[in-house]
Each structure stands twice: as C-alpha cells, then as structure tokens.
Design brief:
With 271 residues, this protein is mainly α. Helix content is 66%, strand content 0%. The protein is globular.
Length: 271
C-alpha cells in the first residue's frame, strides 16, 4: 500500500494525475488473484515512472512489460535472462532510476523541506547496512546474534543499525512527516506523528529489536538487550513528542514562516 501511494504521488508530480484509490484497488485485486494461483508476493506499481516517461515510454511500455514478465512466469524463461544479463548491465539502469527518484523528491518539495527529505532517507541507509551485516558469508549467523545481543553498559551499535533498518519504508515516511510539521511550526501535528512512531516501535512494526525484524510484545523478548532497545526507542519518541507538544504553546511556534512553499505548477515545471 505504501509503495502504491508513493508511486502514484511520484507520477502526479511528473504530470500524470492518477486516482490513488484506483491504483490501490488494482494492486490489491492483482495480489488476491495471484494468491489463488500460488503467488506469494504482493503486487505494487513499478517505481520509476517519471524516469521511464522521460525516456519516451508510454502505455504500450507497461503493457509489453506485463506481457513479457507474465509469460516469463508461465514459461520459465525469466531465470534464463536473469542469468544471461550481467549485473554490470543492470546496475547502471537501477542507479539511474534511483537518482531520478531521489532528485524528484527535492525538486517537488518546498526548499525548506529539504532536511525532511534527507532525514527520510536515513532508515534506508540503516537497512542497506543491516543487509551487509546479515550476509552469512561474511558473518556467520550465530556470531551475528552474539554481536547484536551482547549484554553490556550500552546497546550494541549493530543492533541499533538493524532496528533502524527494520520497517524502513514506514519509518522514512513518518520521519519525513514529523520533520515537515516541525519545520512548518505545526508542532501539535508533529507531536502526534512522534506518538504514532512510539506506538509502532513499541510493538516492533518499526525499529524491531530482532535480527529478523519480526513484530512482538516487548515484554516477551527473551534477550534483555533487545527488550531494552524496544523500550528505549519508545521512550525516546515519547519524550520528544512531549517536548514538541509543550513547545507548541510558545510564542515562537506561532511566528510566521518566511519561506513560502512552491506552488504545484512551479514544482512540476522545475522538475
């Protein structure tokens, strides 16, 4: 659902205004139909629409892509092409699409929201690092658990990295949202987002203090370090929510914002 919303918004900024509800219903029905035939992955619109549109792709590109991969799943030739095409050929395409998406985030937002865009990327970096840590070729699974759950005076940095990356998509959206509200001095809304982050982190929806990223009731965690990390993340968000809420009653919170946001037409034109 989050992927569908993000991709729809990305297309809207690039000039294609699709109905988010229709997109979400389409991907939901596709997932249900695929599940009846043994599909185990949820459907979502393919990201990077602005980049492909820039290269001249239209509706026919989407149709041909769907037919190619649909028939490939039935006939089994996808694995052949995956093995045939070297990673050195695919990597530049993925990097190009990623750069286009990231740059769009800056161009489509008011300038004063740039720090929020940057902050929203931080959980993704944590996820990338945790993927490398979770490579059993580099670090055996048992040794990784010992590193993450090692008892001491402080919570191990490796466990913090895993917790930062677990649920990174939802974390990034909420981090960006609360900082935007803070920048625009809507501090009560900012504190509400922080309270939501506290609840989600308490149950491991985000910042799960386990290596596999599962959800939990924190008092059922067997490792003391993991239990402490879960409570610490929640307490940190609650403390910050309380501080921001109290600051909302100050004179500075009611001051006028000098930097006016760009209009939608300006954002699309700049992009």
């Amino acid at each position: 659902m989050i992927g569908g919303i993000n991709v729809t918004e990305s297309a809207r900024v690039a000039g294609d205004d699709y109905k988010t509800r229709s997109i979400l219903l389409t991907e939901a029905c596709s997932t249900l139909v695929a599940g009846l035939f043994g599909g185990v992955a949820q459907s979502t619109p393919y990201i990077g629409q602005p980049a492909y549109k820039r290269m001249g792709a239209r509706a026919g590109y989407t149709l041909l892509t769907g037919l190619f991969f649909g028939l490939g799943g039935c006939l089994g030739y996808i694995s052949f092409f995956v093995a045939l095409i070297p990673a050195a050929v695919l990597a530049p395409i993925l990097i190009f699409v990623a750069m286009d998406i990231v740059s769009q985030a800056f161009f489509a937002c008011p300038k004063r929201h740039s720090p929020a865009v940057m902050l929203a990327m931080m959980p993704t970096i944590g996820r990338l690092l945790s993927i490398e840590f979770d490579n059993t070729v580099l670090i055996p699974a048992n040794h990784l658990k010992e590193i993450c759950m090692k008892a001491g005076q402080t919570i191990p940095n490796t466990l913090v990295t895993f917790a930062l990356g677990n649920g990174f998509i939802l974390t990034g959206m909420l981090w960006g949202a609360f900082l935007v509200e803070m920048i625009d001095r809507r501090l009560k809304a900012c504190s509400a987002y922080l309270a939501i982050l506290a609840v989600l982190s308490f149950f491991g929806v985000i910042h799960s203090a386990t290596i596999d990223g599962r959800m939990y009731l924190p008092w059922t965690l067997t490792e003391p370090v993991a239990r402490e990390a879960a409570y610490n993340f929640t307490a940190g968000y609650l403390a910050l929510a309380l501080i921001i809420f109290l600051l909302s009653f100050t004179r500075g919170a009611r001051a006028k914002i000098i930097d006016e946001p760009l209009g939608e037409a300006d954002a699309v034109a700049d992009y």
